[in-house]
Design goal:
cytoplasm; alpha+beta; Jelly Rolls; JmjC domain-containing protein; nine-stranded antiparallel β-sheet; 12 helices; Cupin_8; six-stranded antiparallel β-sheet; globular; 2 domains
Length: about 400
């Protein structure tokens, strides 16, 4: 590992606030071709069946929405070739006048090898990260609702196009919700895509950090930071979640949540899982794994934390980290925190997307629904943390 790779690794694992890395000249083949060329290359590897069906399945959403986050359950599908996606979304024509589309949250293995060639996070000091890389191909206004990742720290590389990030510290007074439930993500009830008004966001307006990533920019997101991500124009980005030692604690928490969620589903109405689970978690309703065996495995992993292959983080002092950052001559900068007025201006622009005619038809969407409130009360991060702490204390007494 080179000294630059070592330094970047230390920075990624030790920064306490999000940082931008600029001007690295990352030696990935994708940076040597245009976005259009990359899309055309992707299409060269579509199967004959995919071509006959009109392309691959893009998830789609509306460019207007209600004041409820545009969860995945609201999304549709549209078949397109990647070339069609690029040409139509770049012009904002046809389907893209009123809609956005994404072929994202996909593992790098789902990308043709020639398109994925060279996406190597060893450049940042993490050579072991090879297959666990995710790519996001999306149009203007495609976005991910505000959430925090329960595991690891996040490195994001913007390859083509531009993407806007809003980030909030872990202790920000956002309203966590486990509906929709997705293992490894905690969403919040607030929407930053189509808010109805600005006044509802007074508790968080002084905690927002923003940045628009350009091609070649790298974003480092420390553990548990909330983030809302939206495409400014058609773009491609790739990211990797770097596993850290504290992940086993969170894995125990997430396993406890999963046990609870499974029980809520099994003791509810037949189709409750459609409203409770994010679409990528539908299999939980048929999950045959013994979650208590998994929990025991995780407890054992915690006991053997010294042999964990995960990275230790926060091991540099503030002075050591500052000295390291100075070596990069302002190539690495913290994401700026914006003023309350700037935050309100952003939301006032997005209010134009609010459409009161769009409603959530799920039985769990109403504020009066008892199951909605019980799930969020029982599975709130603070309560789960207390359960985990008490559970581990009792397990330690049992084994001592």
């Amino acid at each position: 590992m080179t000294s630059i790779e070592n330094n970047l690794k230390d920075i990624v694992l030790n920064v306490k606030v999000p940082h931008i890395i600029k001007g690295l000249n990352i030696p990935w083949p994708a940076f040597k071709s245009s976005f259009q060329e990359w899309c055309a290359q992707f299409d060269n590897f579509l199967t004959s069946e995919e071509i006959l069906r009109g392309g691959i399945d893009f998830e789609t959403g509306n460019r207007k929405h209600s004041n409820i986050p545009q969860w995945e359950k609201f999304r549709g599908e549209k078949k397109m070739t990647v070339k069609e996606f690029y040409e139509r979304s770049a012009k904002g024509s046809d389907f893209f006048v009123d809609n956005w589309a994404t072929y994202g949250y996909k593992n790098i293995k789902e990308m043709p090898y020639e398109c994925a060639e060279g996406f190597d996070f060893g450049y940042f000091g993490f050579s072991e990260v090879k297959d666990d890389i995710t790519f996001w191909l999306s149009s203007t206004d495609a976005h991910t609702p505000c959430h925090f990742d329960t595991y690891g720290c996040n490195i994001v590389v913007q390859v083509y196009g531009r993407k806007s990030w809003m980030l909030f510290p872990p202790n920000t007074k956002l309203t966590p919700t486990r509906i929709p439930y997705e293992e490894s993500s905690v969403y919040c009830k607030e929407t930053f895509f189509s808010p109805e008004d600005v006044t509802s966001y007074k508790d968080v307006e002084g905690d927002c950090y923003t940045y628009v990533l350009d091609p070649g920019d790298v974003l480092v997101v420390p553990p548990k930071w909330w983030h809302y991500v939206e495409n400014v124009c058609p773009s491609l980005s790739v990211n990797a979640w770097i596993p850290i030692e504290s992940d086993v604690e969170t894995q125990i928490e997430e396993c406890i949540v999963r046990i609870l969620m499974k029980n809520f589903i099994e003791h509810g109405k037949p189709n409750d899982f459609l409203d409770i689970l994010n679409p990528n978690e539908i299999d939980l309703s048929e999950d045959k794994y013994n979650l208590f065996d998994i929990l025991q495995y995780l407890v054992d992993q915690k006991s053997n934390a010294g042999s964990s292959p995960k990275h230790k983080n926060s091991y540099l002092s503030e002075n050591e980290l500052s000295a390291l950052l100075v070596n990069f001559n302002e190539q690495i900068i913290p994401v700026p925190k914006i003023s309350k007025e700037e935050f309100r201006n952003i939301l006032n622009q997005r209010i134009k997307r609010f459409d009161p005619a769009i409603s959530d038809n799920s039985t769990l969407s109403t504020e009066s629904n008892i199951k909605y409130h019980l799930i969020n009360a029982v599975c709130s991060p603070s309560i789960i943390n207390e359960i985990k702490t008490d559970f581990l204390m009792k397990m330690n007494k049992r084994t001592s």
